[in-house]
Amino acid sequence: MKELGEIARRSRATQENKDAAQMEKDAAALVRIYESTLSFWKERKAEDAIKWTEESSAAAKKVHAAMKAGNWEDVRANFQGVMKNCKSCHEVHREKLDDGSYRLKVK
Description:
Blueprint: H1 2-16, H2 20-44, H3 47-69, H4 72-83, H5 86-93, E1 94-96, E2 102-104
Antiparallel strand pairs: 1-2
């Protein structure tokens, strides 16, 4: 998920500059990240996280398809769909440590 944060930080510039090579790389990474994340949450039977991850995964696949088609408008719209669940999941499943870093909440 740390890689997702890096993608999110650079996404605006990548999209504004229509950097197809970077966006193609990032879109493929999004699909891979969410496939892995979905397995992680399914193992833990965290139904809320599974739902959020499935939604973001579907949007990531749409970003990837839109990037392959060169449709920047759909890239932008679907990228927002990828990111929309991040805060909800993090609020429920992460805890902030004293040093400012985060870890997975133990349930």
